[in-house]
Amino acid sequence: MNRKLVILDILCYAVIPYVIWTNGRELLGDYWAIILSTVPGFIYTIYRFVNERQFNILGLFIISSLLLETTVNLLSSTAESMLWNQVYLGFGFGVLYILSMAIKRPLALYFAVDYAYLMGYARKDSIALYNRKELFSSFQWLTLLFVIRILFQNTFKAWLLSTYGADAYGQMLIYLKISSWIFAGLIMIGFMIISVKINKLVEQLYGAA
Fold this sequence. Notes:
By secondary structure, this protein is mostly helical. Helix 1 (3-28) packs antiparallel against helix 2 and helix 7 (133-164) packs antiparallel against helix 8. It has one domain (3-206). The chain is 87% helix and 0% strand. The chain is built from eight helices and no strands.
């Protein structure tokens, strides 16, 4: 990810929402301040989705997540219930990742297939390659890392809510964004390690290019 995208991520997912929250809660109340603070991230994610043409499993997963989160936010009656519902939804996504591992269809594998497709490789070829025993367990472990990220962030969010209530929302924006970047780095390293394994396996199967 280039520097421009990093800056945009920080602005749209943390800085602007934090400014809206801190300056809007007295005028609008906690509930609408939180609702409005999610708008920049929603618009930015849609923009990235369309701009990068992620019409694939990863893209559909992102859009579906956004729609579910927005629906939960709008249906919640208070600011605190909205935040708790976000926690429950987050754990629900964790269950989805776990189920994908249980049925031997780890989501990380299909995210990698989407990336390979953008690089010009046929999906069926990538799926066949990534499901080989030399690589499959690595995608299971990487999917588990996604689960750990979800469990950590939502457990931490639940702790802040239990301790401080909706007043902790500003802290959540900052702390969760920091932890999100840490896990994003770990996940990127995981994909890089798998990429090395893929290159070695392709060389063994088909010889050096």
